[in-house]
């Protein structure tokens, strides 16, 4: 799969692949923190690091996923803190 993605280096395929990964998570319990998203960000960052030299395009796909999950984690932290303040 990495070789095919690397050969095409298509933005459309990249976005579709990322969407598939994010949608595969399905419905899930939403705690008041971004901890689940931080774990996913770390997972995808580690994958990117393993692929970085052999498959730089694919590593970038996983870097982007990691960044999206880090952003989501921050947003969930902020929303959770606001809910706790409101009571």
Sum up the structure in keywords.
single chain; 87 residues; mainly alpha; 4 helices; elongated
Roughly how many Å is the radius of gyration? 15 Å
Measured as a percent range, the helix fraction is over 70%
Strand content: under 5%
Q: What's the helix count?
A: 4
Mean pLDDT: 92
Describe this entry's structure for a reader.
- The chain is mainly α and 87 residues long.
- The N and C termini lie far apart (48 Å).
- Helix 3 runs antiparallel to helix 4.
- The protein contains four helices and no strands.
- The protein has a domain of 56 residues.
Short description:
The protein is an all-alpha fold and 87 residues long.
Lay out the secondary structure:
Layout: H1 2-8, H2 11-24, H3 35-51, H4 56-86
């Amino acid at each position: 799969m990495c070789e095919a993605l690397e050969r095409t280096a298509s933005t459309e395929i990249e976005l579709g692949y990322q969407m598939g990964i994010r949608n595969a998570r399905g419905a899930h319990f939403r705690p008041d923190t971004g901890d689940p998203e931080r774990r996913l960000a770390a997972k995808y960052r580690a994958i990117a690091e393993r692929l970085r030299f052999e498959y730089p395009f694919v590593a970038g796909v996983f870097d982007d996923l990691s960044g999206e999950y880090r952003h989501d984690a921050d947003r969930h932290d902020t929303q959770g803190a606001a809910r706790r303040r409101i009571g």
